[in-house]
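Hi L., both proteins are below.
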Amino acid sequence: MTLHPTLEKVTDRIIARSRDSRSRYLDRMTRAAEDGPRRAHLSCSNQAHAYAAMGEDKTALTTARSANLGIITAYNDMLSAHKPYESYPQIIRDAARSVGATAQVAGGVPAMCDGVTQGEPGMELSLFSRDVIALAAGVGLSHNTFDAAVFLGICDKIVPGLVMAAATFGHIPAVFLPGGPMTSGIANDDKAKVRQKFATGEVGREELMAAEMAAYHGPGTCTFYGTANTNQMLMEFMGLHLPGASFVNPDTPLREALTVAGARRALEITALGNEFTPAGAILDERTYVNGLVGLMATGGSTNLVLHLPAMARASGVLLDIEDFSDISDATPLMAKVYPNGLADVNHFHAAGGLAYMIGELLEAGLLHPDTETVAGKGLARYAKEPKLRDGALVWEDGTGKTLNDKIVRPAKDPFQPTGGLKQLQGNLGRGVMKVSAVAPERHIVEARARIFHNHHDVKTAFKAGELTEDTVFVVRFQGPRAIGMPELHSLTPVLAVLQDRGLKVALVTDGRMSGASGKVPSAIHVSPEAALGGPLACVRDGDMLRVDAKAGTLDVLEADFDKRAPVQIDLSASHEGIGREIFEVFRQNVGLATDGAAVIL
């Protein structure tokens, strides 16, 4: 199938933009790999320290010419998605021993749960945790005793941070091992309705707590299609998972078989064998474009608009939000998974899931078919599904058709002809909107501005009955330089109630919205941010604003707007407590949201 012309155009543009940085990156990776496995060059004292506690594996580590696998784990048992990782190191060690190799936990990385910190001060550390994760993984791998690495991480900032580390150590292979989604609980739409009723006082905290616990009820990722599950999709489209690994539930025989197979595959593709596939060779411009297509075709989380540029930059590839928008315009929206629909990821997987979508997109010329992956060259492998046959793991052809066209549809007959993201640009700066869950009649909102400097004040105004008119809510000084760019997901129930009352409402912010948000039109990641004197800091209460997702514009309709001086506010209260003090160096050095809001790259 011929490659779609937009895909070709965007890829060529990224290659041209990245020519110098990608060349420098590949030169670094070549130099790092040219000496062969690094363990051979360590002194006896260095090696003795590394192997002192390895018991039965000491002989293999010191005398055998076999691979040693480094495990970077984000395990903790506060994150339901990461609880399954508690047992993974032993499974991986046993898998390595079964083929004469070894495995060691190289290091642990922090893993925040945005569901716990949502609306709380800790959320102001959430985005920065991505770069901390990359740094922590780098420390673990810096011991230089590993021939390949496996990465245990799933949720919002964890996978992007781990990919940044995998790219930085791109001279060795990297395989990502998922844990899978929890089994389905209360329907996500029912949960959202209870949240809205709580916001209006129709139900109390006891009913709210019961609904939340029925939704988040066991090990595995949350079942809505937010950032965590978007990450899992991305790892398949980018070839860093084994095919079909993303959405197999925890604590099942197939899940364990895929974990074992992933560990063994990481050992097979080291420089010691005949299939050497370093991570840097996988993470090229075409692979990132495939990731963009997956994001748009599935209606994935807007958080990846921040994370993908940071991930790509770590491998010398430079992405711009223009690339996201152009790919979105060319990519059909093929999936409806909550918050874009009523189904959860388990229903999506059962209906054909990623294997079906990848096959369809390849046939439509909307994916680069010849990318390198951890499973081998060529993305067609990811149109197959893993099965256990007589106890053996095999990959078989996928369904070839959707098993529920209310959840997944063919590329030629999609839910809508374009993807779920739109770039917005105007005299307020540049931002993005996730439009896949926003009703078409709400794609344009023109209304007076109401200015807020935190989400608490929006809720206070709502409870006081002040919000009775069409309004564009400008929630500013929420960017990475101001307070770490927290998610504002806790505003969703309030804004949804106003919208359901018949008001035209929109949100404009230099902060983020959760990957689970969607039904309210939200211009997010607006850059330059208010704390840098961006145009958002010049908006006044009562200004007429136009948020237009159809035309892709974001403007203040006031004649004197370009003559105004930006306001400044005291942010010191948001720079103290809950660990925020120690992140001042991050706030002072963070990049623009349009470049990924990275600190370390």
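That was the first. Here is the second:
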Amino acid sequence: MPTYPLNWDLDSLLPRPDSTEFAAVLEQFSQSLTALADRSEQLPPLSSTGTAWTPWGNFLREFERLEALGGDLLSFIGCHAAADAGNKHFRQIEAALSALDPLRERMATNVEFAFREASDDGFKAFVDSDDWLKQNRFFLVQRRRNAQMRLPKGEETLAADLGVDGIHAWGRLYDRLSGDLRIRVMEKGEVVEKSPGQIRFDSAERTVRQNNFFATDKAWKGIADSCADALNHIAGTRLTLYRRLQLKDHLAMPLHRNRMRRETLETMWSVVSARKQVLLKYLAAKARLLGLEKLSWYDTQAPLPQIDEGGGKSEIGYDEGAQLVTRTFAGFSPELGEFARHALTGGWVEAENRGGKRQGAFCTGFPSKKQSRVFMTFTNTHDNVSTLAHELGHAYHSWILREQPLFLQDYPMNLAETASTFAEAVLAEQRLRETPSRSEKLAILDHMLSDAVAYLMNIHARFLFEDRFHQERANGELSAARFSELMLAAQKEAYLDGLAGDGWYPDFWVSKLHFYISGLPFYNFPYTFGYLLSTGLYALGADAREGFPEQYRQLLLATGCMETEPAVQSTVGYDLSEPDFWNKSLDVVERRVGRFLELLENRHET
């Protein structure tokens, strides 16, 4: 009998999606949301007198209740649909919930415009009028600030309506083009067609990696002109809106959405640029191990060759992996370890390796229930254990915030990966300490340093590319060839020219979905921020072990109720607009490179 169940418990959360009880819950939610959206149109203006305070307070409390229920419903049907990917009924319910999004957007718009139109004294008096509103002050102030990033109400409504067949249509076009794309590759002596997500570049055989890469590039080139049209018009629409809003530039909106100051972003990239040359030593060492003069783009994910035979373990069962995570987390803090045990034994995780499940892994929250659920497919690898730790890190973040008001449980993208990446680091460092095998140590460090290359080089290249094409797009549309020129230049700068001369990927912009997400500009720098924040936190924890778990807990609490910089400074004492913290993060990367090289040099270590 396994200690840790492989399947999650969803039945204790809500009635089954195919039941009449669930249909009734969904219908009641839809009716309540419609009624509340209509109420949002009738709310009186906010003023410094109390006439409007009661209807506004009642509205916001009901808004909170429905947001919590909506979060439960979206997570619930998302879990069922992921576990049974072929179920058409589940997909229909997902579509029905998505169709309610305009009601939520209408309420958010009405709230933000009302807050913007209120006088400073009127808004302050309203927030100070009762304890519940005071408790939610940060959320209310954020909503007022959001309104500064909106056009006048009539224009905002028109832009939203036009966006359906405009900017968002270009994003959907890319989704359709990429979804229909098929790549012809050789497999077991036959030519087969695969979707882009099925193509892998982590084969031990270089010829396989190389053939997959060139076949993939050829396929993406076939739709490059259409993708260039989509990218031009997505960026062009944004730039038009930014001009109407009189924003400083194309970075003002993504910085606002990440609750982050420009100085912080500039300092982070400055330190990264100054320190990441140490990764060239890792790339060169990996190239030597693979028998290459320099790595090409398609070599960076290649596995290392076996260095020794003893001590390593290629497979790990789910029970053993879950126990390793629980024990490792407990070594950091008893609370984190107990949380992992509670989640893993309490039916929070779906890990069974079976057909019919969606790909990938995720963690999703049920705010009304104060619980989370983790989805993955465990195939008995140590990478799976890392994924489990990563997703449980997300769940712990939500667990820490569970007693906060719902409106203070949300945090921006740049802070979203902090707890998850930190949890991975805690696990990986423990594995490094415990394994006697040099090959396994090298494999763990290779995984860590591959992540460093991804966040400090690959993501940096994406940022440089997106920044520069927005600058050029302000003067007119770019050709597919020009996009490729900008991407090649960005890669060479970000990778410090560290790959083989013919080993770059100029057409990467065609294949990277993140550039085409019409609702989220600059879906790149938050990843690097989150990686370096968690890495720096790990360094602080190693330096000051005793009191750090509580500092870390307080930081996770602060992510929901503070701007990014105050959240970090008030809990761990670092100013992110200064280089000190970022250098701590890069110190960790540098030590890992040194350890990787040391293991390669000491051939007798076991």
